[in-house]
UniProtKB/TrEMBL annotation:
This is PCI domain-containing protein. SMART domains: PAM. It comes from Solanum tuberosum. The gene is LOC102594205. Signal peptide: none annotated. GO terms for molecular function: double-stranded DNA binding; RNA binding. InterPro entries: Csn12-like.
């Protein structure tokens, strides 16, 4: 019992000292529930052993003035250790709300990194709580609640002064929530604030946040079929992404490649191999050859994957490019003179209905069909 009391007191001292000395790094560790740090694990064990942490807090004003933050944070840490994820999320959100109110009252942005951790943990805990709810046959609702909370945080940051540079990080956390929930239309309100409000200068934001923002807004442009804007935003994300973050580069390329293909730019095979994007190999090859059959087979083979990514319809529209490349090949070949233009157009028209198109002469053979088994 004495050891548990000591650990709780040590935690309270760390929090109080971090606030009084404006030590954001220490606050980050205190709020990082999902990190499973040894510090928080030992605290959670102490909280389970010593059931009256509030009594320890009442021993000094330097603790009790932050009771609205610390008491629900204790419950969140204890519940997380016991794998009661819904209870952990609910308690953490209360602590996060109380901390945000304190942050609003502080004149400087010294605790901004800690607020980033709180925003991240709120989203992660909400996702895990929703999985727990779903596994128990209940309606997942915590991630939606996390989105509402983060909109409040965005409002705190979207003012004048040094705090506003944190708005883009919170925006990116909101994007992740909206994409996860399939409510991407909600992105519009925050993007409008970032891109039109005079208080924001995009170049002031941290580079990591700008890359993430351009990645998600680029995906939104893909969904809206604004390929020029999508190309600009995703290309920005790619060129400014940390080259050591290969997973992030791959995520960007998953959407940038279809955009590039739609405007007639083909990626090198070495790029596809390096970032394990081989599902695009046959699509690129089909465009190079003017091979409709190969394109349709590639789309059929990876249909589920492309649908999950939201790029299937973009890739499906590449058929027109395949026809254009095919006609260019035909025009440069003896086939154009031997077959005749009217017959070529007739056979191309037939292929739209799933027929097989065969052009043959001494030098060239093209076969295009929806029969992927051949």
């Amino acid at each position: 019992m004495g050891e548990a009391h000591r650990r709780i007191t040590d935690f309270l001292n760390r929090f109080s000292d971090a606030v009084s000395s404006q030590d954001a790094k220490s606050l980050c560790l205190i709020f990082s529930l999902s990190s499973n740090s040894s510090f928080l694990l030992s605290l959670s064990d102490a909280l389970i052993t010593f059931q009256d942490a509030s009594r320890v807090m009442r021993q000094a004003d330097r603790y009790s003035q932050y009771a609205d933050i610390l008491l629900p944070l204790f419950r969140a840490i204890q519940s997380y250790r016991l794998k009661n994820l819904v209870e952990s999320y609910q308690a953490f959100e209360k602590a996060a709300n109380a901390f945000t109110q304190e942050f609003r009252n502080w004149e400087s942005a010294w605790a901004l990194e800690a607020l980033y951790v709180i925003a991240y943990e709120t989203r992660i805990l909400a996702e895990r709580a929703d999985r727990e709810l779903a596994s128990n046959g209940k309606t997942p609702e915590k991630l939606k609640g996390a989105g509402s909370f983060l909109m409040k945080v965005f409002g705190v940051l979207a003012g004048k002064g040094s705090k506003r540079v944190g708005a883009l990080y919170v925006t990116c956390q909101l994007f992740k929530i909206y994409f996860k929930l399939g409510t991407v239309h909600l992105c519009k309100s925050v993007t409008r604030s970032i891109e039109t409000a005079r208080i924001f200068d995009f170049e002031e934001f941290p580079l990591r946040d700008k890359v993430t923002y351009m990645y998600y807004t680029g995906r939104l442009e893909v969904y809206n079929e604004n390929f020029s804007a999508a190309d600009h935003k995703l290309s920005y994300a790619l060129s400014h992404c940390n080259p050591r973050k290969e997973r992030n580069i791959r995520m960007i390329l998953k959407y940038l490649i279809p955009v590039k293909l739609s405007i007639g730019i083909l990626p090198k095979t070495s790029l596809l191999e390096k970032y394990n994007l081989t599902e695009y190999n046959n699509i690129v090859l089909a465009l190079r050859r003017g091979d409709l059959r190969l394109l349709r087979c590639a789309l059929q083979e990876h249909e589920d994957q492309f649908l999950r990514s939201g790029v299937y319809l973009v890739l499906e529209k590449l058929e027109l490019q395949v026809y254009q490349r095919l006609l260019k090949k035909i025009k440069s070949d003896d086939l154009f003179r031997s077959v005749g233009l009217s017959q070529i157009f007739f056979k191309l028209w037939v292929s739209f209905d799933g027929g097989t198109v065969v052009f043959e002469n001494r030098n060239s053979i093209w076969v295009y069909s929806e029969d992927c088994e051949k």
